[in-house]
Amino acid sequence: VFQGLKRDNPTVLGKLVPVIGDILLPGLGLSQPDLQTLIENVTVVYHSAASVRFDEPLRKAIDINVLGTRRVLELCHKLKSIAAFVHVSTAYCFCNRDHVDEIVYPEKIPYQRVIDVSEWLEEKLQEKILGQVMGGRPTTYHYTKALAESLLVHEGGNVPIVILRPSIVTCSVKEPISGWVDNFNGPAGFVIATGKGVLRSMVIRPNSSADIYPVDMVANMMITSSWHIWKEPPMNAPFVINCTSGSFRRLTWLQIFQYSKPLVLKYPSSEIFRYPGGSYKTSHFWHSIACQLDHNLPAFIVDTLARICGQKPFLGDVYKRIHRAMGMLEFFVTHEWTFAVDNLRLLMAELEGSDRQTFDFDIRTIDWVPYLENYILGVRKYVLKEDPSTIPAARKKLNSCNGAKAKTKAKKKAETKATSWTAMCNSASEPAQRIYYVGLLSQLLLLAGAMRLLVKHSQTFNDLWWTLISNLLQLSVRISLALRSTRGS
Fold first, then answer.
1. Full-prediction pTM beyond 0.70?
2. Are 174 and 192 in contact (CB under 8 A)?
3. pLDDT in tens, 202-232
4. CATH number assigned to the domain with residue range 3-186+204-252+337-375, chosen from the 4 options 3.30.70.1400, 3.60.21.70, 3.40.50.720, 3.60.160.10
């Protein structure tokens, strides 16, 4: 990540002085010598440490996101020459409102009371009252970030404070390198699941805004905002910035879906489960059906075959995690918000000359199509750890997977003798063919299920049903033998 920096300025990292600390400990866990060094020398503090887990238990989320912020603020009060404290929040901390201004809204339950209750109330009881306490927010993450903002308003004192609220933070545009991303958060996880052919359906509101902001632009805004309040200290209240793109360069979830679909085929993962496909849904009913048929059914088949082959089943657990993640993110891909961006426009206008290039955060310069292309390449390289040199081989594997069905049909048409089940299983020695036959088996079971529902009360078709099941079991055994043979070779 820092190769370019080391090449251009080899000595710059020597300016860094690391200190050991922990936001969960009193006094941040700082030693007395380190604390004294900070008191004497630090003028600007950037606070972005947080738990970003949406399903974090309330007590833990408060300890990290609220009390952790208080501990950092207490340090700021001790600094002799504090010029700016930049607190990174989230644009969705007030997602219970349709329009979000650049202000801190008061909470119905004071933050200190929530802190006190979280300390003595049992976790099971906390979970029961979460819905009432969080005021319409879907996650403890967003709620505790709002509480942290309230704490800064009431306990900030004379410390010049910026509250920066980024929307969905995505890969870098330029720095440290184009396309850099290092986690599964946000869209990255769904890019991976889609590219591997695991994710086949999700619920979205197609025309709602997909408000994303590149991570290096957010970092530049943090630096610029600290300069701004050093120059013009805020009066009596934090300087709040909604770091959002929708007012400048609007992107919808439908556009992300349309732009990304061909890109995951252009830059496929080296390891895929199925050929990437599927679609978005606007109906929970059709989405639930798609999940049963295109997620849970293949998972059942693959895990059954894994057990037959003496291996540990895994796909069912994968889909449980995917469905849990989709459930937590659904609120944000099916709702629309508008954000006031007056302070963001002010910062943009203040940058001049070379500073505008050095600390660029102008989202209006982004072309979303090449940006998303770099995003998918970045996820592949930095998250999946797949070198770009493997792309041609991955494409070949993907194309062979896509062409397996067509080739099989052409072969059947050219040959007069039908292909036997044994020959088909033997042909599964290649990974692409195995993927194809898993899909074929899914379709056969789907057909069998439909027949079962349609003719449930017919004895004749009941007999046909059990005959079909018998044939499918024989097919499963033959496929498992083929897979064992492949593993042995």
1. yes
2. no
3. 999 999 999 999 999 999 999 999 999 998 8
4. 3.40.50.720
